[in-house]
Design a protein that fits this description.
The complex is a heterotrimer. Chain B has 15 helices and 19 strands. By secondary structure, chain B is an alpha+beta fold.
């Protein structure tokens, strides 16, 4: 186990270096640069190209690609993630500023969706073929088939604009001291996110539960005369949970950068929102760090998931 | 996919056939060609083609439908009012005239116009779609595309030969907006090798007309010069004006300006913010909710001096303007004196004017601000022109002088002497906010916007920053030592939604938006439908147009 | 030998019945493929297939069922509610919404299906070859796919969109770039087990070339999961196209796609007052994706021998 852990972590490093080089090179191919987004095109005509060039120089945008990559890389090695080109704020501050917003959204959505999803999937698997199973399957399927932003917009239309139950968006307001104060703001985005994820988890846990109910050891357990609920719960569910854990484990890091659409609809100031702004403004250092950050999260999570799978499912051997 | 292509193709074929019919009827060589000024290999260099385009587009209908009747078809860059020449041709919708002009000009129907734009909204695409259909109906094919990347470069790069071309830019027409603070900005791109003239071949006639508008500070003379220029542009259409955009200020019924004026909200004017009142909320607090809070940083006010709420209320200017942006009276300067020849201005700083950190605002701050601004990469072009006209500015910029000799500070008096006349000097000083020098010492002016000052600026205006949660909200409260008195509103809360995004309507219908302005006609319609909001339309100098590339293309 | 007395279970009884029928000659050899039969037994999959075909056919034969050109504007009739003239009303420039949805389907389905097929083509052909050959190529592509799969999908798509720029072709290319990884790994995994099969060894012994063995003889046996993956990717790409349109980074706005049409709902006034501009297209996207998902599910059930339906 230990050697496996070390080996996996060893692969992580070159992988991240290659990925960082890929992204950096890719960004290089974008037309324009950060400076071209700092100035409104209607006014850009009046500015002297020399001054813009001087600005590019001072931001280091005129250096050759390899030189810039090397500088950036050296910085990262020293723990200096650079500065946002547009605001001059250290990127570490930006990430740490945005991360809590994203995490609270993701965690709530993740917990709700795993809980409901695996439970419903489990129920629908042991009642396979029943009306409940069929309707859950169809509902779950509908859940993954509706575009997320469409769902979110309709939710805003109904719950914020028509019924006035919940705020339209945003996260913090002045004088929101306690967590409870901002809770109403969290409800809609996290529920919409959770709803779309629940369907996925449900489908997954249903099929993995079915899968495990088909397994020989379940038949063995059943033939030993164990009560049905015990067979289902202890033997079936525990093993069936493994792939669900895998799914959930993969979801969290994806959510760190991946809740872009939800964050946009609900004006949620998270990492995803920041990423969109950075990409649109060609804020290279920020794009780099957010992309790398989310990739690292995914890689580490997939590693942890592997470890966890081994713990949960005795049949899995790490190699 | 195949089907859509065939149907597209068939439409194109119809247009093509139509164009052949329209184009084929003309004589192979129009006799008048030799007299057309500046004619070159680019068909758009023929002014009759440009006129035909203007006739072919039914701008009135577009204004009425797509723009919801919230815009006015334009016949000049200059908006209606005292600066507009009389008797201009409106190029009202006349497809027959367009066709005959095209015929006269020998338009080749196989030519496809390449039209570019850079706005990302649906309305722009809709307008382009409409224009495409209108031009198609007279036999002009057109494609449109959104520019990506370095827009400034792709739109405004001057050709290396400013008279004969070929152009550096690749487009035929560029859909753009021109928001002018000073009338001179409208035509700034037209002169030979003018800044951003990527499209109009050098032409002494235009140069002369434009120069005349800058030659005098006398309003009547200036107007006359503008009329002549407008008439020329109206006749030859080096650019094709499309419509005048209005600005819409919206306020909730909780707000009362108590007599404060309404004007061009994109800039600064005396709007009586100190007297504004807002109904108290359940806690008895008078809070004004608005938008345009910073997302990453406070946008510095030397480029867009009054676009964001923060820039309006955090900073004062030397002079305050009235609602039509004419200099009204002193602000940071309790008084100012302009010499008869407009070559000198002397400010007397207000007693007790303080920065929000409590330190006094000095003449040094003013002088430093002007000097520093000249080194900042992006400042408003009107500011830049004014500052460059100051005596000794050249030497300062080139580095041969440490300071601008034309700015003298004596106690609370600041005297600025100009080397060349700048008709917009008062405009500059009514929009340009001086900044506290001490926060910028030893900082790189090139990275002005990246300075940490803009995470929490220290200003001179009636409100100061209380809390900044970047991307969440910003709170401003009255500055108690403000030299002009204390504002009646307890707090201004700003959300980070932009001027034209969907959140405006969401927040307004949720009752969380008390003041703002927008140029989006769709938002206006929605706001007007709300019981708790009122919308005040304001005429602003903002003209949408097609820049037409008349150089031979590369 | 004595008969062992045994209580007959329900299963025994049903087998007895089957045997009786068989002996009576009633049990006919089905002419249909077993997998097809299983799909047909799955009512959801059949329903999905019907909806899928309806929408697909409507898009293909768009000119026959639409009386309006989806690009023809009519500024005299903007934002009209559904009527006999325009059964789904008109949009902001007076284009017929029904025609736009039908024609938009062409592009959206092209993006979804095209990208999924493209990703499958790349992923499967690489996976087949590399999985069979192994060695350096395999390792290389495996690492490469790991790199692509390490990104949260939307982050990678956004990065690529801003690098390559917005256009229809670019979007398909981007979806292929982001989608080939899973296909590759799946095919490869299947290949690794199939290549040890005896019939493959036999083919090898006959001296058949690698390409022939892999693509002609092994690949057909690995196609089941690939088909499932193609359908599910189609659904995913269609949803992603819509999401990208929402973020303003999808297919250029002048091309009608379902995502671009639905995008109108972003404007609150349209959302509140002009339901015909977003609700029908929202339903069509959801229905289409739903039907594709049902088909995918049906395919999965029918190709997975462990799940008897």
């Amino acid at each position: 186990m230990l050697s496996y852990t070390i080996r996996r972590l060893m692969i992580l490093v070159p992988m991240l270096i290659i990925i960082s080089f890929f992204i950096y090179g890719g960004l290089e191919l974008m037309p324009g640069d950060a400076v071209s987004y700092m100035i409104n095109p209607e006014a850009a005509a009046e500015l002297s190209p020399e001054k813009l060039d001087a600005l590019r120089d001072s931001l280091g945008l005129n250096d050759p690609f390899i030189v810039r990559y090397a500088i950036w890389f050296k910085g990262v090695l020293k723990g200096d993630f650079g500065y946002s080109l547009s605001s001059g704020v250290p990127i570490r501050d930006i990430v740490f500023d945005r991360l809590p917003a994203t995490l609270e959204l993701s965690f709530i959505a993740l917990i709700l969706s795993s809980l409901f999803g695996s439970l419903l999937g489990f129920l629908s698997a042991i009642r396979k073929g029943s009306i409940a199973d069929h309707s859950l399957t169809v509902i779950g399927m509908i859940g993954v088939s509706i575009p997320q932003f469409f769902f979110g917009l309709v939710a805003i239309l109904i719950f914020a604009l028509k019924l006035h139950w919940l705020p339209v968006g945003g996260r913090l307001m002045p004088e929101y001291v306690t967590y409870w104060d901002r809770f109403p703001h969290l409800v809609m985005p996290s529920l919409v996110l959770a709803a779309t994820m629940t369907a996925g988890v449900m489908r997954y846990s249903r099929s993995s539960m079915l899968d495990s109910l088909n397994k020989d050891y379940i038949k063995t357990a059943r033939s030993k005369g164990l009560p049905e609920w015990r067979v289902n719960l202890v033997h079936g569910f525990r093993v069936a949970l493994t792939p669900v854990v895998v799914l959930v484990g993969f979801r969290l890091p994806t959510l760190i950068g991946g809740a872009v659409v939800i964050e946009q609809i609900f004006q949620w100031p998270g990492i995803g929102n920041e990423f969109i702004t950075a990409v649109r403004g060609q804020n290279f250092p920020l794009v780099m760090m957010i992309a790398l950050f989310s990739v690292t999260a995914v890689l580490i999570a997939s590693f942890l998931v592997d470890l966890l799978t081994a713990v949960l499912d005795p049949r899995v051997k790490l190699s | 996919m195949g089907k859509i292509r065939t149907s597209l193709l068939s439409i194109l074929m119809i247009f093509l056939a139509f164009g052949l019919w329209a184009g084929g009827q003309q004589a192979s060589e129009p006799a008048s060609d030799r007299q057309i000024e500046g004619l070159n290999s680019n068909p758009l260099s023929d002014y009759r083609v440009r006129q035909a385009i203007a006739y072919a587009i039914d701008m009135d209908t577009i204004a009425e439908t797509l723009l919801e009747g919230k815009a006015l078809a334009a016949n000049s860059m200059v908006p209606n009012g005292p600066w507009k020449a009389e008797g201009l041709n409106s190029y009202s919708y006349d497809p027959e005239k367009a066709k005959s002009l095209l015929k006269e000009a020998g338009w080749v129907s196989s030519y496809t116009l390449d039209v570019v734009y850079y706005y990302g909204d649906q309305l722009t695409v809709d307008i382009m779609t409409a224009v495409q259909a209108y031009l198609g109906a007279v036999g002009i094919k057109m494609d449109f595309r959104k520019l990506e990347g370095d827009l400034g470069e792709q739109l405004w790069t001057n050709p290396s030969d400013p008279v004969n071309g070929p152009s550096y830019v690749k487009w035929d027409m560029a859909y753009a907006g021109s928001a002018a603070l000073a009338m001179h900005e409208y035509y700034g791109k037209l002169p030979t090798n003018g800044p951003g003239n990527s499209h109009t071949p050098g032409n002494p006639a235009i140069d002369k007309l434009v120069a005349a508008t800058k030659a005098t500070a006398n309003i009547v003379e200036q107007q006359k010069a503008f009329f002549a220029l407008e008439e020329y542009v109206n006749e030859y259409l080096p650019l094709i004006p499309l419509y005048y955009q209005q600005l819409f200020i919206y306020e909730s019924d909780r707000v009362n300006r108590n007599g404060g004026a309404y004007g061009n909200a994109q800039y600064n004017y005396d709007w009586g913010i100190l007297d504004w009142t807002v109904e108290a909320d359940s806690n008895g607090k008078h809070v004004l909710y608005t938008n345009t809070a910073p997302v990453e940083f406070f946008e510095h006010p030397w480029f867009n001096p009054g676009l964001n709420m923060a820039n309006k209320v955090l900073f004062d200017r030397l002079i305050v303007a009235d609602e039509s942006l004419m200099a009204k009276e002193g602000q940071l300067a309790s008084s100012f004196k302009v010499s008869d020849d407009s070559m000198e201005i002397e400010f007397t700083l207000a007693d007790g004017a303080k920065w929000h950190d409590g330190s006094a605002i000095t003449g040094d701050d003013i002088k430093w601000s002007i000097e520093y601004a000249l080194k900042v990469p992006a400042i408003h072009s009107v500011f830049a022109t004014t500052f460059k006209s100051i005596e000794g500015a050249d030497a300062f910029v080139s580095g041969s002088a440490d300071s601008i000799s034309g700015i003298e500070v004596k106690g609370s008096k600041v005297k600025v002497t100009f080397a060349t006349l700048d008709p917009n000097m008062l405009l500059t000083f009514s929009q340009f906010p001086p900044l506290p020098k001490k926060y910028f010492e030893n900082s790189d002016p090139l990275q002005f916007q990246q300075n940490s000052f803009w995470q929490r600026p220290v200003g001179s205006g009636p409100f100061q920053i209380k809390t900044v949660e970047m991307n969440d909200y910003t709170v401003a409260v009255p500055f108690e030592s403000y030299y002009g008195g204390t504002a009646k509103i307890d707090e201004i809360v700003m959300y980070p939604s932009g001027e034209n995004d969907t959140n405006v309507i969401k927040n307004a219908s949720a009752g969380k938006l008390d003041y703002g302005f927008t140029k989006s006609v769709a938002d206006v319609k929605a706001l007007e439908a709300m019981d708790n909001m009122r919308v005040i339309p304001v005429d602003i100098p903002y003209t949408r147009l097609f820049y037409v590339n008349k150089f031979p293309k590369p | 030998m004595n008969d062992i007395k045994k209580k007959k279970t329900r299963l025994d009884r049903s087998f007895d019945k089957i045997r009786a029928r068989e002996e009576a000659g009633l049990l006919k050899q089905s002419k249909m493929n077993r997998q097809l039969r299983k799909i047909l037994n799955n009512r959801l999959a059949v329903g999905g297939f019907v909806i899928f075909s309806l929408i697909l056919l409507a898009s293909i034969f768009a000119p026959l069922i639409c009386q309006y050109d989806p690009l023809a504007i009519d500024l005299k009739a903007v934002l009209q509610a559904p009527s006999a003239d325009h059964i789904l009303g008109t949009d902001r420039v007076g284009r017929d919404v029904f025609a736009r949805i039908v024609y938009g389907g062409r592009i959206s389905i092209l993006v979804g299906l095209g990208s999924a097929l493209g990703a499958a083509l790349v992923g499967v052909s690489l996976g087949c070859y590399a999985g069979y050959k192994g060695g350096l190529i395999d390792g290389l592509f495996l690492r490469l796919s790991e790199i692509f799969m390490a990104f949260p999908q939307i982050i990678l798509v956004l990065l690529l969109v801003s690098i390559l720029g917005q256009s229809l072709i670019n979007l398909i290319v981007i979806f292929i770039i982001t989608g080939w990884g899973p296909m590759y790994r799946m095919t490869r995994a299947r290949m690794l087990s199939l290549r040890e099969e005896e019939y493959v060894q036999a083919l090898k012994a006959f001296g058949l070339g690698t390409a022939t063995i892999t693509y002609k003889h092994i690949l057909p046996n690995a196609l089941g999961p690939v088909m499932v993956n193609i359908t599910l990717s189609t659904a995913m790409f269609i949803l992603q196209e819509a999401a990208l349109s929402f973020l303003g980074l999808g297919v250029p706005l002048n091309i009608a796609t379902w995502g671009n049409i639905l995008n109108a709902a972003q404007e609150l006034r349209i959302l509140q007052e002009s339901w015909w501009m977003w609700l029908p297209v929202g339903i069509v996207i959801s229905l289409f994706v739903l039907s594709v998902n049902f088909i995918g599910d049906g395919l999965r059930d029918s190709t997975d021998p462990s799940q008897q339906g």
